[in-house]
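Job type: complex structure
Entries:
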Amino acid sequence: GAVVSQHPSRVICKSGTSVKIECRSLDFQATTMFWYRQFPKQSLMLMATSNEGSKATYEQGVEKDKFLINHASLTLSTLTVTSAHPEDSSFYICSARSRGPGELFFGEGSRLTVL
Amino acid sequence: AQKITQTQPGMFVQEKEAVTLDCTYDTSDPSYGLFWYKQPSSGEMIFLIYQGSYDQQNATEGRYSLNFQKARKSANLVISASQLGDSAMYFCAMREPDTGRRALTFGSGTRLQVQP
């Protein structure tokens, strides 16, 4: 089946640094990618929707200047957490939608810990 | 109002027995899709089953079946013959394409623990 790969799977960083998470669709072209955030023991909350070649659409309450999303190609979207703080520590999961009827495929997730 | 409601934070089931995980949803969109995902402790989201709003029959995938009651707006997941490996978080989710919202909206999840 289709595969979406996220990297890194785990990252630990110091407060104030920026962290980039990559989401790649390995065997299909993803016209749309979605970024979710999941706090411990909670559900997945949509952060933003990114379409290839255009600006991401952010959900209400998500700071676009803090969570930079770039969808530069049909197979790659990146999420950059800028000036990370401990409260940004979370599990970030991307999902990618292919053309056509459009199943959604999820990446393995990236666990961010900000010290 | 919540779009997807899962009222069971946790469930226990004996190995080899069947279990039903509840999910109700709220939408005014006539066209929608309902999904169930399994999330083990590793964090990956594993797709289990899909039900379209216009599907006449309940979806089934191996040991998973979806009890779709459209009038009640419920889409319960039934797992038959539970296995120890079924222990995980289970999320119900909905997609509403006619609203332009192609992302999934997730419920709060149910933690299932299968006991030997």
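Summary: The mean pLDDT of chain A is 91. The radius of gyration of chain A is 13 Å.
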